[in-house]
Write a structure and sequence with these properties.
By secondary structure, the protein is of the alpha+beta class. It has one domain: DD-peptidase/beta-lactamase superfamily (Beta-lactamase, 3-Layer(aba) Sandwich), CATH 3.40.710. About 30% of the residues lie in helices and about 15% in strands. It has 10 helices and 12 strands. The chain has an 8-stranded antiparallel beta sheet with strand order 2-1-12-11-10-9-8-7, sandwiched between helices. It starts with a helix and ends with a helix. About 50% of the residues are buried.
């Protein structure tokens, strides 16, 4: 891989980026930049070990946990979801399967469907952030979701679909979502700095999310107190590199289910990518992508199975990672 450091540095500067950018081979670091503050009030600088929120990027962890339950024989990709969560969401379309949710083709409406021009501070949570610290806190809102189209007929990104998957995990295991993901994904992959942290008790090594490129206002009132199946995990650039390698090495799910996960199901031209099961895919290269953006969070991690190269940008502002992520995409394919 050829790194044009000037182009990447220009993208970082133009975006007024706050966070960490790292491009690594299997054994070496090709490029690294750490900019901005993890805590602006106390002038704590971002660094490579800083833990950043992932927003929807952590859907890859939910997906890996769900597929591990498929490996264990507890569910299948064709399992009808309402047979598992019917008591929680009796209004859910009975035709929706686990595969529909993973591939964003369930037709379940999302929380931004009614917002034409989204700004990080626009969206109001459907319940108090503390209530949404547990997946069950979403049940009343999930019961109010509309069915936009018949399952399986088209792609439509749905955070709520992945919250339903978190409920599926809890119902079939009898355990909390966060505990299952920790056991099935984080531990096998050796992710020692990845966790669903509470935003109201972040440790010193975690970056606070800021709504704007500058200023003191944080995202604490704009996100659930702790993430669920749709996002909210905290991680580092090194843990993401470890995750991709463990996933492709068969240390989390079987080779058969990995092939299902990374098989392209939808072209998504609006986002310049394709989509498999819970993972974005490069439009031309075989690279795998985790991507997320929310109030005070923006990130993208790209992994090339062929070369073992990883390019990750983790930011603690709402949009700062996007221009950098675009520049990183140019390194692949």
């Amino acid at each position: 891989m050829q790194i044009d450091e000037g182009t990447l540095d220009q993208a970082i500067a133009a975006a007024r980026f706050s966070g960490v950018v790292a491009v690594d081979t299997r054994n070496d670091s090709l490029f690294e930049r750490c900019t901005g503050f993890a805590n602006r009030a106390f002038k704590v600088r971002n660094s490579r070990p800083t833990r950043f929120g992932m927003a929807g990027g952590s859907m890859v962890f939910t997906t890996a946990a769900v597929l591990s339950l498929v490996d264990a024989g507890l569910i299948t990709l064709t399992t009808r979801v309402r047979t598992i969560v019917g008591d929680d969401i009796p209004s859910l379309d009975p035709a929706i399967t686990v595969e529909h949710l993973l591939s964003h083709s369930s037709g379940l409406s999302d929380y931004l469907d009614d917002l034409d021009d989204w700004h990080p501070a626009d969206y109001l949570l459907p319940a108090a952030p503390q209530v949404l610290a547990e997946t069950s806190g979403y049940a009343p809102e999930l019961a109010r979701r509309r069915q936009l189209f018949p399952p399986g007929t088209r792609f439509s990104y749905s955070d709520y679909g992945f919250i339903v998957l978190a409920l599926v995990i809890e119902r079939v295991t009898g355990r909390g979502f966060h505990d299952v993901v920790r056991e099935k994904v984080f531990q096998p992959a050796g992710l020692t700095r990845t966790e669903y942290l509470r935003t109201d008790e972040l440790p010193a090594n975690a970056a606070i999310g800021y709504l704007e490129d500058d200023g003191p206002r944080t995202n604490i009132f704009h996100l659930p107190a702790r993430g669920s199946g749709d996002g909210g995990c905290y991680t580092t650039v090194d843990d993401l590199r470890s995750f991709w390698r463990a996933l492709l090495a068969g240390e989390i799910i079987s080779a058969e289910l990995l092939a299902d996960m990374i098989h392209p199901r939808w072209d998504v031209p609006a986002d310049g990518m394709r989509h498999g099961l819970g993972v974005w895919l490069h439009p031309t290269d075989g690279a795998l992508i985790a991507d997320g953006c929310d109030a005070g969070v923006s990130m993208r991690s790209i992994y090339c199975p062929r070369s073992g190269e990883t390019a990750t940008v983790l930011g603690n502002t709402s949009h700062g990672a996007a221009p950098v992520a675009k520049a990183l995409m140019g390194l692949f394919g």
